[in-house]
Amino acid sequence: MQFEDIYRLEVVNALEHDNDLDFKDIGDKYLQKGICPSCGERTLYIARKQPYQLKCNRLNQCQHEEKTRERYSHLFENLSERFPRTELNPNATADAYLQRNRGFDISKMKGWYEQARRQMLDGQWADTVRFPLCNGYWERIIDATMVAANGGDKAGIKYKMSYKAGGWMPPGMVIEKGDNVYIVEGIFHAIALHLAGYKVIASISANNFPWNVIEANKGNKVRWIIALDDDKAGHLVIPKYRRQLHAMDELAWVALAGKDRDWDDVYRDGQLDDVFMQEASYQGRLFVAPTPSKRAYLLHLKKPLNFFLLEFGNRLYTAKVDTDEINKELNKDQENGAVTKTREELFDKYCDIKQVANCVPHFEYIQRDALSGDQQFFFQFNFPNPAQNCKEPLAPNSIGNPRSFAQSLLERTPGGNFEGGEKVLAMLRSRWLDNALTVRALPFVGYDAASKTYCYQTFGYHKGREYLANSHGYLEVGKTGLKTSLSSLALTRGTDFDPHWFSDFVEVNGLNGLAALSWWTATLFTQQIRSKQESWLFLELTGDAGAGKSSLLRFLWRLLGRANYEGMKPNATGASAIGLTRALSQVSNLPVVLIESDSTIVDAQGRETTSQYNWEDWKMLYDQNANIRTVGVKSSSNDTDSLIFLAALCISQNASVKGSEAILTRIAHMHCTRAGHTPARKVIATRLNALPVEELAGYLRRCLEQEASWLEHYFAAFAQYEAKLQANPAIQHQRIVQCHAQLMAAAKATQALFPGWGDQLLDQLFKHVENRAIDRQQRVSSEDPTAARFWQIYHYLNEKVITITDQEGGREVTQETLNHSSDRSLIAINIEHFHNACRLAGQEVIHATQLQRALPKSSSHTYVETRKVRSVIEKRPLNCWIFRKGGKE
């Protein structure tokens, strides 16, 4: 009743006030018409009297289920704060734990336990619930936060005590002649069985067995029911303990609760009764069946089929039963009044058992590519020799016919063989594909907008909650499965976040480092930001050799769990066109860093020419749903697939990006120098760079835990910083304002993650970012250096003063020698003519490639187009660059 009251009062109250579920129909019996977290429809409901599990009534389309105990975990956690011990009740926290988390009626457990304290690995002290055990005690840590502080260890025993050959029994329980006594592992398992009306002993560990208790009751015809955990450890020791009990001439049975639940889970769900115990005993008999024939007989008793499949010893068999002959002989015995053979003996006589596979193929899930729709069927193949066990994906046609399946086993497993026919495979296929789980395979690492889940190889996050990949390799988020099919980019799951490195980071990297850290953190939420603001800025890091930008990038990558990585070269020496496209599309809500794209060439005359990567090709990556590449689908239709950019772009090189106004205004530029480098700072930098990725990668987990809070801070701060930058008359371009406001909003949101990041430091960063915005405005407003030099040479060479003598007399006239246009408002320049004039006049010959990049961005004279014009100088058509005289209005 106490356990039910917790649900009836507190959980129902939480349901009624849950804005995310927003129940519209709150009645006396049900809460209905809530928003399903999975499908988003108003189809969620829950019973008021048994508010244990939320369900969606779209049984065919959704099937969403969620335990309220997990949704409102705060009602069952941090009990030391909510229910602290008092003088009147020194066991208050332990009482709350046993009632809320275990569902026990503590009125029946008076004097069994006490509340105590235990020191954790990190030095903290945690509240525990303690039970006397043998010559000491066993205790369970109450709060989940303290379990984490203890390295995940939930329980422990008194130092130097021993419970070997002993165990724990409920106080007052007496074992009498002919009793059934269950032997379980944990004390809570034992309490659950005892409260359900069964006699029980807790062995504390699978490696221990209560031989002392058994010896004390030897010969009393007690039936010892081995009910250890239904897991790998339990399966290894159960047959051994059973043989030892039989060797002592004791009665020994086995009972298994099931792989998904322990005995106390069954008790908490209200199902621990005689019906369940009979099924558990049946499962135990199946587990210890000595032969395939015995196992077949037990299966036949439960479900009398003439033909069925069975597993034994990790081999697959078929059983063909002649039930007509069995019934004939049984009927004869009834007519004669004498039993000549038992049903089991007749079953052995008329049952034909054949091996059809030397392993057991366990179907796990269908993996479906989220973009292409291609499918794979994942199997776990278990062999009699565990060293041969393997997990392999098979193509759909591999299970289409017996020959294909047998061939796939030979090709994909270490010695697997299948000898069954179409009938056997059809039975297997029906079993495998009946309500099969389909796991969406993402062709990238990171954020999946469809499910709002961050998915990495070994872990993921959904709405701030962490999910670890299960034994099958995918994340179970609600009723859906999710995994990444990308194996080339793996992120390490770090330990819990510790910001102790922050002061060293600021000391070494300064305000540029803080800006980079803010942008880097924001990349984890790029899609959420773009969905509202339609864009996300590019970050550019430049610097002198040895300024520290490479060390900064490597450190930032370690914060996300990627060690020994800086970025990739986008030019031909670093990546092919396809390789670069894949690199841009293989991550989502993560940064993509392109490095060393510029190259310097020294010509024969000793002049240096810096050749830059053409960043104009990627300026669309700034926008939401930017299309990287479109490819055709292999089909008879005109369908295409588009690779969408879901990440954020960082550019790192020595020279600053040169380009059009369109690309420059999309960039926030930070320049690193060697100023301030000292031997003392070198020591700090060495200490910072020595931190392992496992320690730093906890930052990723912390950021994703704070997803909702970070985004809330970001959007609240953006409007504030946008207004500040717009108020600065030196910044006129709205895109420059937006980009630098985004960067500062990211800094404000990231500040909350670091206790050592004060408001004074944030103000300094704003002034720095504001100055970078002003610099960017000045750069956009000024002429490109190459274009400026071109026009300087052009105006010097273009005008030639000649003397004309006619009937009006002699006079000086200025003629244009390079402008081929007849329209006085235009300038038409032939590049070859211009270069020849430069050579004849001894002027610098600017390479044509540099001019092709610089002139379209000219602000001295506005570029119009490149086309043929009839030259007024040479009186013939020439290919010319056309400009309108004067700059942009």
From TrEMBL:
It holds the Pfam family Toprim_3. CDD domains: TOPRIM_primases (cd01029). InterPro entries: TOPRIM_DnaG/twinkle, TOPRIM_dom. Residues 181-268 form the Toprim domain. This is Toprim domain-containing protein. It comes from Pseudomonas proteolytica.
